[in-house]
Amino acid sequence: MKTNKPNIDPALVREIANLLSESDLTEIEVQHEDLRIRVVRAAPTVYATAPAPVAVAAPAPAAAPVSAPLAAAAPDDVSKHPGLVTSPMVGTAYLGPEPGAKYFVDVGSVVKEGQTLLIVEAMKTMNAIPAPRAGTVTRIIVENAQPVEYGEPLLIIE
């Protein structure tokens, strides 16, 4: 009894898998006549923990110029602030939607919960970082196009 399944060359499958590994792609599919090969790379699992709640809010710092982000502060200065927004991933933080565009927020901006604060590009994907709560942006800790690590302070909403 003859089957209609084409012979699949293991070297071809390995070559396609290597192409996937060498690029930022997560999936590739090749089809030629009756042969169809699909290789998918599983996304890494990210574990996140919520920071411990703090009962007393720190006093608001003096207002900075509205359009300029503040220089990066020492982690001890802001790490326990209740309004701290941290990066949920490793990537590059962008304060605006594209180069030269107006920033999503500035110091003094009043934001609503869910409003986009900035974006973090990770693996060629732009990830909007939403406001976890409503309030006023009192500090922008990162600079535009700055590389960020998981859990790194981005800005403060009071």
UniProtKB/TrEMBL annotation:
Please give the SUPFAM superfamilies that the UniProt record associates with this protein.
Answer: Single hybrid motif (SSF51230)
Q: Which GO terms describe its molecular function?
A: acetyl-CoA carboxylase activity
| UniProt-listed GO biological process terms | fatty acid biosynthetic process
Give TM regions: none
Q: Which UniProt keywords apply?
A: Biotin, Fatty acid biosynthesis, Fatty acid metabolism, Lipid biosynthesis, Lipid metabolism
User: GO CC terms on record?
Assistant: acetyl-CoA carboxylase complex
**Superkingdom of the source species:** Bacteria
Alphabetical list of InterPro entries matching this protein: AcCoA_biotinCC (IPR001249), Biotin_BS (IPR001882), Biotin_Carboxyl_Carrier/Decarb (IPR050709), Biotin_lipoyl (IPR000089), Single_hybrid_motif (IPR011053)
- Give the pathway listed in the UniProt entry for this protein: Lipid metabolism; fatty acid biosynthesis
* Residue span(s) of domain Lipoyl-binding: 82-158
Cited function: This protein is a component of the acetyl coenzyme A carboxylase complex; first, biotin carboxylase catalyzes the carboxylation of the carrier protein and then the transcarboxylase transfers the carboxyl group to form malonyl-CoA.
What is the protein named?
A: Biotin carboxyl carrier protein of acetyl-CoA carboxylase
Organism per entry: Ancylobacter dichloromethanicus
